[in-house]
From TrEMBL:
Residue ranges of domain Heterokaryon incompatibility in the record: 57-211
UniProt lineage: Eukaryota, Fungi, Dikarya, Ascomycota, Pezizomycotina
Protein name (Swiss-Prot/TrEMBL): Heterokaryon incompatibility domain-containing protein
Region annotated Disordered, chain positions: 424-443
Pfam families with a match to the protein in the record: HET
Amino acid sequence: MTTLERASRWARDCEQNHPHCALTPSVLPTRLVAIDDDVTSREARIVETKTEPAGRYIALSHCWGTHRLPARVTKKGLETSNIVSLDDMTRSFEDAIAITRYLGLRHIWIDSLCILQDDPEDWDRELATMHAVYSNAVLTISVTGAEDGTLGCFAGRKLKKYVPIPYSDSKSGLDGQVYAFALPAALEARPDKYIEMSSEPLSGRAWCFQERVLSRRVLHFATDQMYFECNAGIQSEDGLHLKNRFFTLHGDPRSGFLPVPGGSTSDTNMQLWYNILWSYGPRKLTKSSDKLPAFAGVAAVFAERLQDQYLAGIWRKSMIEGLLWQALDVAEVKDRKPSWSWVSIDGIPASGLIGRWEQLAFIIDCQVDRVGESRFGEVKSGSIKMEAPLLPLILVESVRSSDDRETGLPLKQKHLFFRTPQGLRTPGQVDPRTPGGVDAKSTGRFDSIGQRHEEAETLAREGKVFALVLAVDVGDTSHKLMIYHSLLVTPVAARGDGTTLKRLGFVNLEIESLGVDEVRTSRTTVTLE
């Protein structure tokens, strides 16, 4: 059986036998690439679906890479001709068109051919419907193993090494040889690694993340073999068949998350949102300004489910919880606004409060200045006006003695702590250089500094740092372990008013390092930018 014969069988079996994968006919994309029946044809047409009904279609997920795509449709060019030559297309485009034709379909959606590349308004309109493009495709062809369009769907696949093993069956009298190949031990030990496909070039790209999450069925052309992914699980050419799949938004009961015990549908949706956001955060972008646009399709689906307002990546109804993200594995980034949104970092925005908590901050107003019309797209800036406890933090230095783990020799370690003036003189650790420490009473870190110790210490010593307290844990009825969830903030110097702040990081303060009376009674009206 050839690779494409297997792909056709997988797709046909899914359509006929998987009720969870069923696709209800709906609105078509604005444009599609129409493919000729003639396999020798070297041309394709760009068609407007409102004037030329197209029926079912396939979508393509690929990485542009650093090369400028030769085949790009522009508004001016489309006015002259809707014909595109395959000779001007990348290898990935050619392969995808050939696969589409083999599977019996005659239309495919390809971003650079179906979005006008010289028309910002068209780009903005198409961005708003990206979720529908991939959700309504019969299948998404994913060039998962290619870092750019020059490689195509089948490049670089290594042949497996087969070993002959003799066998003998005494009952039937048959004997001979079977051929076996070794499976990757790291993947077999953790089957979820097959699902993540983390070593594949496309898996590290931000735009391709939402294309996979939004698709009902995905045909992956990876570096080792072909995989088929749907709500029934993942299959591969070498016989792998897992019952789980990657994150999906199409109602699969095995979609990688569990309902919140005793929680509402909204609770479950928010849990899925935070899980998806965790996975999306560190993925790479060629243009850093695409952080929100590359996630717009996912956001559009959740906006419908949550019936909520989307503000630069944060949901209005759960804004307090949404603001308390913690930056993990962060790469150095320039000043990206707004500081209060996870869009300001390149890394994992660990979100979601665990357990019971009480809100201590109250939102007065939220404003977002968008670049285009899409409420899910790029933003210029944003501000949140709120009333909350705002407590100055002072820096305390401490030296601890311990034994070096490797040499066993005495070792002195310097630690820096933040506490309020009303806090105890021996507070718990809030170390801007590490994510926390042994016997830590409090934990925190600066968002964009990570493990750059000297830079963190300079900022802590020279900057005016405050704790903007947003919530407190109330699960512990004895109140001995109450954690005050706060943002590390500093005044925006250009404003000069002392109450316009920007986020520096997060800090979770225990009761010993906080003035309890003050945090319960003090309220300051501030604007977070």
